[in-house]
Structure formats: structure tokens, C-alpha cells
Amino acid sequence: MPEIKIDKQDQAILSLVQNDATLSVGEVANRIGISKSACWRRIQRLEHQGVIRDRVTLLSPEHVNLPLTVYISIRTNQHNDHWAEQFKRAVDGIPQVLEVYRMSGELDYLIKAVVPDMPGYDLLYKHLIKADLFDVSASFVMETFKQTTELPLTSI
User: Fold this and answer.
1) Is residue 90 located within the same domain as residue 68?
2) What are residue 109's DSSP bridge partners?
3) Residue 126, in any domain of the structure
4) Displacement of CA 98 from its chain's centroid (Å)
5) Is the four-CA dihedral 129, 133, 136, 140 of positive or negative sign?
6) Are 76 and 125 found together in one domain?
7) Fewer CB within 10 Å: N-end or C-end of the chain?
8) Domain check: are 78 and 108 in the same one?
9) Are 109 and 103 in contact (CB under 8 A)?
10) Contact, 114 vs 69, CB < 8 A?
């Protein structure tokens, strides 16, 4: 992967747009003190380089009847490409699954999903186990203390 250089102006742009993607280019430019065209070029370059992946709208899960967040720990006794593809297809086909990570340590995979209620989780579980899993464990979020999509930009 080629090295991507991000200067202080890029960092300021990224900080603003990851906090509020609805800001106009003119507003971003004004806030960081550069011209609108220079700001537009920088944003285009950051998108082209893959630094800016997407621009999204974050929804409140409670308002779309998905108030229960569940983290699902998966262990498998099959570590081969065929099983991994089958598992990937299974989780790709479940819209309630938001994130899937292959892990180091005792877990093989960690899944974050949202469901309306326990029967909704049971239905999701029944879809998951079609992937021939060895062990499935679920933990339900009872209270959220911090949740953000903003990456800290202090390391660049």
C-alpha cells in the first residue's frame, strides 16, 4: 500500500467531515481557511486515495425497531478456505449483522448485530448456525457509555 501523506489541512478537513458529512465544501474551506477549489481538490484526493471511504447517515437503532445490540462470539473447528467462504456467505446474507471480525486468541470470529428483540436474535442465530459452527456465544448490550464512528486523528 503506498504511503499517503496527510498534512494539517487534510487532517482538519477529515476532522470536520467525519463529524458532519453534510457540511458543504465551502463551509469546510471557510472553517479551515483555504479556498473552496483547494478544499474540493483535497477532498477528491482523499476520496481517490481511499482515506475517505464513504459518506453515510447514521440512524438511531431504537427508531428503526432494532434496539438490541448483540456481540456474538464464534469458534469453529474448521480452518479452511471452503468453510470461510461458506461462513462469509452466511453472514453477508443477514442484514442485521453489521460487523464481522476474524480474531486472534480464543475466539475465531466476533460479530456485531442488531435485532428487535430476543426472538429476533433467535432467528439470526438459526441463520448463523447453518455455517456449521463449533461454538456460539452471545452477549447483549445493556447500556452504551460511548459510541462513535469518528477515528482519532492524533496519530497522523
Assistant:
1) yes
2) 74, 102
3) yes
4) 7
5) negative
6) yes
7) N
8) yes
9) yes
10) yes
Cell of 116: 428487535
Distance separating alpha carbons of residues 142 and 124, to the nearest angstrom: 19
Q: Measured between alpha carbons, how far is 13 from 43 in angstroms, rounded to an integer?
A: 8
Total domains in the fold of the chain = 2
Specify the CATH number for the domain of residue 18.
1.10.10.10
pLDDT tens for the chain, 156 residues long, are 678 899 999 999 999 999 999 999 999 999 999 999 999 999 999 999 999 999 999 999 999 999 999 999 999 998 899 999 999 999 999 999 999 999 999 999 999 999 999 999 999 999 998 888 999 999 999 999 999 999 999 877
Widest Cα–Cα separation across the chain: 57
Write out the residue range of the structural domain in which residue 14 sits: 8-48
Phi-psi region of 26 (alpha: psi -120 to 50; beta: other; left: phi over 0): alpha
Residue with C-alpha cell 453477508?
Answer: 92
What order do you get walking across the sheet with 135-140 strand by strand?
Answer: 97-102, 109-115, 68-75, 135-140
